[in-house]
Fold this sequence. Notes:
Blueprint: E1 14-15, H1 18-25, E2 35-39, H2 47-50, E3 56-61, H3 64-73, E4 79-83, H4 91-95, E5 101-105, H5 111-120, E6 127-133, H6 134-141, H7 151-159, E7 160-168, E8 173-174, E9 181-188, H8 198-210, H9 216-219, H10 227-230, H11 244-256
Parallel strand pairs: 2-3, 2-5, 3-4, 5-6
Antiparallel strand pairs: 1-8, 6-9, 7-9
Amino acid sequence: MKPIRAKKKLGQHFLTDLNIARRIAYTLDFEKHQNIIEIGPGMGVLTQFLISEAQSITLVEIDSESVVYLKNTYTDKHLTLIEGDFLKLNFRKVFGEGPFAIIGNFPYNISTQIVFKTLENRAQIPFFSGMFQKEVAERICEPPGSKKYGILSVLTQLFYETELLFHVPPQVFRPPPKVDSAVIRLVRKAQFTLDCNEAFLIQVVKLSFQQRRKTLRNSLKTLNIPKMLSEDAIFDQRPEKLSGKDFVQLAKKIGHGNISN
């Protein structure tokens, strides 16, 4: 296979290293996942490895020039090409209620939004892997206790086992970005629903990290927590000390108005 000529469009930096593309493709277990979505295939450097293994693959590409190239290059019957914005894609129109895996060299300007859309649709998405800006990849996978740990870390890790697989240097892109990249893998947990009000949990997590240098007692003031409740020791903590499970318990207790077990 020859490297595919890469062009920069829509803020993307196109991967040209075939070895890296192959490594990304084989983060996915093709026997477990029959339906696959590749986000932002561009000129197909990753697609060429996926198509030889996948039973059914759907490409989602917003750039019209790339779409023309993909249509002319890949004519396999088990491949579907959708021209459009992944963030606006209705999964049920594509797969019904069935499961599918997501993979890609993600456009960095929407990569966080891609993760949040995945979390919202996690019932259909047991597997997710691909390339992110290194800083974002580390935030997704970071455990509690550091400055990198935040909203994205908590919410992703509640539903998926996260793993940072390998780093990717700028030189393998054309044009080279000014940042390093990294490939991560998310495998959905067996228990991916929560026994709390999910909207309220997200509100608690977001409020906590919006003022992450403050203790929870101060950052959650707008929730009007009763004074007796807010005297519990957990409110002396800063948000980066709490795991996803801790936040679930906190949201449940605040919602019930009683911090004691």
